[in-house]
Amino acid sequence: MATASSGNPESKVTELKTEASLKDISQQLEALKADLSNLAGAMGDYGKGKAKQARSTAEGYAHTARNTAEGQYDYLTTEAERYGREAQRMVREQPAAALGVAAGIGFLVGLFASRR
Question: Please, which domain of life does this record's source organism belong to (predicted)?
């Protein structure tokens, strides 16, 4: 950035200092750009790593929840079958009591349904 200067030595010194300052600023800006680019890349890599970790954790929780739900389903199915067999056995052994219970339940259902 040379400019026409008069023969004044002080103006030449000022001009050289200005050129040196501008060159330093330009170099610092380039270094800052490179640092920001590196930082952006590092942040991107960090974010990808955290996303992968979160996905892995969520998949683990989903797997655990599924296994628990399947276990509960199996347990409840077994219990429902057991209660069904027990009810059939009681109806065969005590048909009059079963008929009385069924009539009572029917009466209560009818009573509640008529109040609507």
Answer: Bacteria
